[in-house]
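Bit of a strange request maybe. I'm writing a small parser for structure token strings and I need a real example to test against, not something I typed by hand. Could someone generate the tokens for this chain?
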Amino acid sequence: MITLGDLASVTPRVVICPACVCDRFALIECEADRDQGGGMLTDMHGGVILRGLRHQRRLTLDDLSGSQLSTRRLTLLEDGVDATAQELRELAATLGCSPLVLRHGLPADRGAQIRQELARADEALAEGLAAEARAQYAALVDDPALGSRPDLWCQAELGLALAAEADGDLPEAIERLTYLLAVLAPLDEQQLPPMAFEDREETEHRIGIALALCRCLREVGDLSASVNIGEITFTRELPGGWTDRGIELGATLLAAYIERGEQTICRALAAQLLEAAEQLGTPRALRAACWNGATVAAIDGDASLAADLGERALAAHAHLTDPRSTGRLRARLAENLLIYCPAEHARARQMLLIAQQELAGSAASAIDLGYCQLWLARAALLAGDVEAAARQAEEIATRHPAALNLVADARLLVADTLRARQQMQAAAEVRTTTGEQLEQMKAPGRASRAFADSAAELEECGEVEASIRAYQRAMSVGDLASY
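Reply from user aminoacidic:
Good idea to test on real output. This should exercise your parser:
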């Protein structure tokens, strides 16, 4: 298996922004068995209930401690020591729930009802009804007793995060995913206890949350945090070897490296992922590895390999039922055509129109659709419809202010349309502003390219001194990128 130490120093290059695979995944159950009615856990002790209710309310042990309850005593209670009647009353008052909930958890019939409501919310999200799903998950999360069933709380919390992402609210998605991951696997604990890996499903669950968080952080432009989440999870969650989910995590981490322009690392990781996927031989693994492997090959200028990997990714997709990922993959392959084979813009446009239909009828996020629309705008520019391209790019940048990656791509397309109109000064200004944004996002390769293009445009309109300064800035940022 690849280790992070194997991915040594790099010379970054200017890259595009690929997305990665993230299927919906089943949540882990709590540590006890469920009864036939799907209700209350039959051997769940009060400590699990207390800890779950505390997590639901986002309280620390210090927050929960009081005149009669020290943090030490609370730790013992969460470890399974029986609470006294007085302690139950005090805790119930602080947590805003009934002492009966603290002692027994949710009734069996309420547990079964919540499962049905979660299933309806999952179905709404899968059908692309993000706002509806978000409201349904939020209603469940607001149930004051939900935390007494940590498995159901986790499922509702994750569902709400993914629905927020699909609805375009990346800050809320990040906040919820960050908290959920901190509850299940604190990031300051580089090594989890061995028992954490005894249940493969729990490991896959943690990886899935980290994968979604890594992706959302990438989309808001926090590439350092995205890489950090991916690297920590990659290192500590895969000691037992590769799985489908592990390869999907690797592909998501690869996307963050691509954004940062770390092409040498990208080549190494892409090769490792492809080798591991071929050994597993599963459609999910092959889809993830070939998808981003095609992007890395395209960046390297290997059109033949990029096309081959793209075809393999689509072939793997034929064995899966996931219209969202199908649409995203098709759109990314079309983007590669637009950037590296611009003469194929008509073919790329047809692919994007198909992808747009696939995304619209799935659980695709507003950001997924935004990228598809942006690439359609670029296809319009290549076809000579400058006005349409400019209008669409401006609309996308305005519609998704929190998705800084998407906004940066849209602003660069706006600059391209200004250049096509021979408005070099205006194009240079837009590129400079976008380059500064990319620099703040820790995407030095893309920032350097933006400054260099701005310098060329300034030179064309006779702004020699400004052009020199822009070239110097591009070189400075490029030097920072060459670590």
